[in-house]
Design goal:
three-stranded antiparallel sheet; 403 residues; alpha/beta; globular; Helicase, Ruva Protein, domain 3; 12% strand; 51% helix; Rossmann fold; Arc Repressor Mutant, subunit A; 3 domains
Length: 403
């Protein structure tokens, strides 16, 4: 029998000492360049230490700007302090990608409150009553973190947030507070007036990192993840520069070094160089694009799917001069396709005003470029051009909707 291939891999020399420390999922002990955000968030949540209701908070920013990491860091510190002083604090973190309805979120909370009981099959009113009764009886200050809150179905989001925030009207002691995290700066604008008035929230926007900040973040991670002096300074600089140029995304910078290290191992090299980073770029770009697409709110995904599907068979635009401009779409035809997709996937169609906002946001993310039709094109409209492979994007989004 041939020798087990894993023995060879197990004994193979590696540039890593702990690959998890250069993973996008690793939470570092210190969070450089987010001190102000940490301080602000701590101040907003600190009333809970005096048995008062903390603020509701909404945090916005692009992927890879440290939103979730900062919130978890602050919540961990808050829990530690509350335990030392025997304060009744309970927190739950929920990624709304996996819990997209009001009942799913409340069910998850109740299951945490009563881990030894099975609530499958109980009515929505029973679940809500259990949720409220537990907080009342324990006199808890309860904080629920809703990550990717924009992933909650549009017809459910107002009801969920309104129910959570108005729970406080029924509490003499204890409180319920919401910390929402979103990549979508327009998220709160979609809430109805009743929900907005019940929130009384604080807001923070996390800016992207620049190249110098990304360098420092990588320098902090490298000694934890790699053997001493195997990563060239040029590799760190290349990963930081490429990430800053694309999006200011720390995840991209970290993943570039991770994949570069894996390439070095694969080729049995002793060092990680800028050339390894450049070779890793194509693979990481594909992973990052997928991550960005899957974290988009449902409506933005539908608009992007409409653009992708229309781009698979674009009609070239005929200019007055007789020239053809290929791979360019009229915003009107994209909106019509978007309406079809909303009907297909049972989603509400937004107005043309909101559609224009979504187009602007997709351009901000770098998925598309737009221009206003000018000289040589009949009429006055927005022209849209997709910046990525239409087939791959379409397949990615369709798969997300089918799961």
């Amino acid at each position: 029998m041939a020798e087990n291939i894993f023995y060879e891999l197990l004994n193979q020399d590696s540039v890593f000492i702990d690959k998890t420390k250069i993973s996008p999922h690793y939470t570092p002990v210190s969070l450089p360049f987010r001190n102000q955000e940490i301080k602000t968030l701590s101040i907003w949540l600190s009333p809970v230490l005096k048995k008062a209701k903390p603020h509701n908070i909404f945090i916005y920013g692009k992927v890879g700007t440290g939103k979730t990491t900062v919130v978890k860091h602050v919540i961990d510190n808050l829990l530690s302090c509350s335990k030392e002083h025997s304060l009744p604090l309970y927190t739950i973190y929920i990624n709304c990608r996996n819990f997209q309805t009001k009942n799913a979120v409340l069910f998850y909370c109740v299951q945490h409150f009563f881990p030894n009981k099975n609530f499958v099959g109980y009515s929505k009113s029973f679940i809500y009553d259990k949720f409220l009764t537990y907080i009342k009886e324990k006199e808890l200050n309860f904080i629920v973190v809703l990550d990717e809150v924009d992933k909650i179905k549009e017809r459910e989001i107002d009801d969920l947030i309104y129910s959570l925030t108005r729970t406080n009207d029924e509490l003499v002691f204890g409180s319920v507070s919401v910390v929402g995290i979103s990549n979508n700066l327009f998220f709160k604008s979609k809430l109805d007036l009743r929900t907005k008035s019940s929130l009384c929230q604080q807001e923070a926007v996390f800016p992207p990192y620049d190249a110098e900040q990304l360098k420092e973040i990588l320098k902090q991670r490298v000694p934890l993840a790699f053997k001493a002096e195997v990563v060239d300074v040029s590799a760190i600089n290349a990963a930081a520069a490429l990430s800053a140029k694309e999006s200011g995304d720390a995840r991209t910078a970290v993943m570039l070094l991770l994949r570069a290290g894996e390439l070095a191992d694969l080729n049995k090299e002793k060092r990680v160089t800028d050339q390894d980073v450049l070779k890793a770029k194509a693979k990481v770009e594909s992973e990052i694009i997928k991550s960005m697409v899957l974290t988009l709110p449902v409506q933005l995904q539908l608009v992007l799917l409409a653009i992708s599907e229309k781009s698979l068979s674009p009609k070239a635009i005929l200019k007055i001069t007789g020239q053809l401009d290929s791979n360019v779409l009229y915003s009107g035809e994209v909106y019509e396709k978007y309406e079809e997709l909303c009907k297909k996937y049972s989603e509400k169609v937004v107005s043309t005003r909101w559609f224009r906002e979504y187009i602007n946001e997709l351009e901000t993310y770098g998925f598309i470029t737009t221009t206003v039709s000018g000289k040589g094109v009949k009429g006055n409209t927005t022209l849209i051009k997709l910046g990525f492979d239409a087939k791959n994007l379409a397949n990615m989004i369709v798969k997300e909707f089918s799961e």
